[in-house]
Automatic annotation (TrEMBL):
The keyword Signal is assigned to this record: yes
UniProt keyword annotations, A-Z: Signal
Name assigned to this protein: Lipoprotein
N-terminal signal peptide: 1-21
Species lineage: Bacteria, Pseudomonadati, Thermodesulfobacteriota, Desulfuromonadia, Desulfuromonadales
Native species: Geoalkalibacter ferrihydriticus DSM 17813
């Protein structure tokens, strides 16, 4: 019984890690699709904060990326894809800088 519980926990952990990896990439894509030039002042401030948060998450994931997995013998489960790649982080950083410049142009940021 303990062995079954152990394998169920490992499977759930693997599923969670995989879901997190997929969700992070989708959040980045969603953020990069938005047009910040047409946003209101409040919208662009919230967007800038979202970009900052996602950039921090993706940068941290890139620094700590590696394969995560559990298994013995010929059977294993795990997330083998890093949550971020350099291209995503660079794209986020470029958009973050563009939005920062727009905030300054609107005199919403010193």
């Amino acid at each position: 019984m303990k062995v079954i519980i152990h394998w169920v926990r490992l499977f759930l952990l693997a599923a969670l890690l995989t879901a997190c990896a997929a969700g992070a990439g989708q959040r980045t894509a969603d953020l990069l699709e938005k047009e910040h030039q047409v946003m209101s002042d409040e919208e662009i401030r919230a967007y800038y904060q979202s970009l900052s948060d996602q950039l921090a998450r993706e940068s941290r994931a890139l620094r700590t990326s590696g394969n995560v997995g559990y298994g013995t013998g010929s059977f294993g489960v795990g997330a083998t894809r890093g949550m971020a790649d350099e291209a995503q982080v660079q794209a986020l950083r470029e958009r973050w800088n563009e939005v920062r410049q727009e905030l300054r142009r609107r005199e919403l940021m010193p």
